[in-house]
Amino acid sequence: MGPVDAGACVVAFDVSVVIGKDYLPPSVDATATLQMRENVSMSTPVRSTALTDLLLLGQGQDLGSERGVSCTGELPAASDPDLVSRAKIARAALGDRALVLGHHYQRDEVIEFADVTGDSFKLAQAAAAQSSAEYIIFCGVHFMAESADILTSANQKVILPDLAAGCSMADMATANQVSQCWKELTEIGVAQETIPVTYMNSSAAIKSFTGEHGGTICTSSNAKKTMEWALSKGEKILFLPDQHLGRNTAVLSLGLTLEDCVLWNPWKPMGGLTVEEIKAAKIILWRGHCSVHGRFTLDSVNEVRKQVPGIKVLVHPECQHEVVSAADVVGSTEMIIKTVEQSPAGSAWAIGTELNLVSRLARAHPDKKIVFLDKTVCYCSTMNRIDLPHLVWAMESLVEGHVVNQISVAPDVAKFSKLALEQMLAL
After folding, report:
1. pLDDT tens-digit map of 26-69
2. N or C, where is the chain less crowded by C-beta within 10 Å?
3. What is the DSSP string of 54-117?
4. What is the pLDDT of residue 128?
5. Closest C-alpha among 378, 385, 343, 386 to residue 361
6. What b-and-e string marks burial along 294-319, b requiring 16 or more CB atoms within 10 Å of the CB?
């Protein structure tokens, strides 16, 4: 049985992978199943422990999360025993005509076939630097594929294996809402001194707005640098759409105070703020958040420290401010990976980021204790929509000469989006 989509979380019921050997039917070999589902080669040591080792705080479920949408289309069956070999054949047939980009939060079965893995910043750089591949197969979410289309040449085609792979955070800021916000800022006389800084996790339309109004894009890797740049150009920043990354960067990296930040609620007139509050603020934060990183709590930080004395808490800056403030190390996805890689054997880490990555880190570093900083088995459901059947379908279709799921950004939107993205890459 496959995972049940519960919005931000994929509550996993694939017991052969998620729960572990003790829960498998007697006829199923746990190691073989793990290798088949996660593409672990026979030469790669397979840990005898399963995902349960990461779930120090429990194995809860959250079925009350926002629901996702279904995706139609004829796909290879996930149970197809030839699925991995089909992927290898299709990938070999495409050769240099294709570049497969895989975000760190992707399933292992997808990462196995990625030519480049990284966070959104690294993959944006990879897309911009690649000029020879006819197809950019983006194993990530919709806004990432849009950015790749903007940064690549007109003769290249960007493919998203599942069009339902969106981002709830990106959906929290629509073009109409942001335009209305800017109109209200203009009416009170502060727009001319405000520089938009938009997180990569946003639609092309929002990136276009940012470029048109002299702003730039940021990722969790370069948020500090981009916000410093913006404050050198203006008196205020309108930070879209992730309030937590904006707040954490402003306070913990730039030395501003919580009082320097105000929260703009797009569902209320004037963002729910007074004119005086807006004029006094340095950072206007959009009321958006990551549905995965927003789950981590201060209670979980305190609980994991009680259970594992000396453990270090390592979290992503999309987490809530109180969690980030209590953590030992805060960093982008790339920094989280490097921190674990460079830590000594025997060290212990409670990691607050997407579970696919935490699981991968645990398998790659069996000499370290790595646990997940949440009580719920919670994957990014939209990122998890890109699975091996979708990837195989996309690649086999391209081999047959059928371009599927192409992401194309309208030229007028791409024009200003590219300005903002190139400004980011230039910093």
Report:
1. 333 333 333 333 333 323 344 445 667 777 887 665 544 433 33
2. N
3. T-TT--B--TTSPP-----S----TT-TTHHHHHHHHHHHHGGGEEEEEETTS-HHHHTT-SEE
4. 86
5. 343
6. bbbbeebbebbbeeeeebbbbbbbbb
Please choose, from the candidates 291, 243, 319, the residue with its C-alpha nearest in 3D space to the C-alpha of residue 66: 291
Identify which of 388, 421, 393 has the alpha carbon closest to the alpha carbon of residue 405: 393
6 against 405, higher pLDDT: 405
Tokens encoding 111: 């990462």
Q: Tell me the C-alpha to C-alpha distance, in Å, between residue 380 and each of 9, 103, 169, 180, 386.
A: 6, 12, 11, 30, 11
Closest CA to 140 of 111, 168, 112, 169: 111
* Stretch (H or E) spanning 34: helix 30-38
Judge if the upstream peptide bond of residue 25 is cis by omega within 30 degrees of 0: no
Cβ-in-10-Å burial (0-12, 13-18, 19+) of 348 comes to: middle
What one-letter code names the amino acid at 379? Y
Beta bridge partners of 285: 239, 263
User: Running DSSP on this structure, what letter comes out for residue 259?
Assistant: G
- Record the tokens describing residue 260, joined without a space: 């320097």
pLDDT at 125: 84
Identify which of 413, 389, 398, 383 has the alpha carbon closest to the alpha carbon of residue 159: 398
CA atoms within 13 A on the CB side of 74: 2
Q: Please answer whether residues 391 and 101 qualify as being in contact, where contact means their C-beta atoms are separated by less than 8 angstroms.
A: no
For the stretch 246-274, pLDDT in tens is 999 999 999 999 999 999 999 999 999 99
Average pLDDT over every residue of 111-121: 92
- Which contiguous run of DSSP H or E holds residue 396? helix 388-399
Q: Output the DSSP codes for 143-178.
A: HHHHHHHHHS-TT-EEE-S-TT---TTGGGS-HHHH
